[in-house]
Amino acid sequence: MAEVKANDTVKVHYTGRLSDGTMFDSSLSREPLEFTIGQKMVIPGFEEGMIGMTVGETRTVSIASQDAYGPYLEDLVGSIKRTQIPPNIDLQVGGILQMQTPDGGTMLVVVKALTDEAVTLDANHPLAGKDLAFEINLLEIAS
Predict the structure, then answer these.
(1) Helix, strand, coil shares, percent, the chain, to 5
(2) Which of 90, 96, 116 is nearest to 108 (CA)?
(3) Phi, psi angles (nearest 5°) of residue 70
């Protein structure tokens, strides 16, 4: 029976949980995830955990934060003047804003704190610094 190896295109269903068991994502209610092993389309630990799987197999893969979304970096948290944000934007702690980067790209940031004068923004990925566990069910290895 064929086993997953580098450069295979696979289809999977998965459920992702934090170390405390809280589910943060699942593909079960939508189309399976399809990607090619080794093309960095998913986090490294997810790919690595699939090597050797066979079609129909379900495996739970534990992924340390450094092999997932990396460590939580305090350097990616900062404050800006509230006047730098357009007045029509409804600011709320926990809200997500799209910001323009110096090179013209965009990035998502989370509003961490608000005062009358300042807004504290966090550019870390929401799962940065967290260990993850994925239950992966291999549905198909494309030929």
Answers:
(1) 10, 40, 45
(2) 96
(3) 80, 180
pLDDT at 101: 83
CATH code, domain carrying 89: 2.40.10.330
Torsion of the alpha carbons at 33, 39, 41 and 47, rounded to the nearest 10:
70
Residues 82 and 63 in one domain: no
Q: What is the per-residue pLDDT across 6-26, written as a single tens digit (0 to 9) for each?
A: 999 999 999 999 999 999 999
Residue 18 belongs to domain spanning: 9-70+128-141
d(CA 59, CA 71): 25
CA–CA separation, 29 and 137 (whole Å) = 14
Whether 81 maps to a domain, the answer reads: yes
The average pLDDT across 43-58 equals 95
The number of domains in the chain is 2
DSSP summary character for residue 48: H
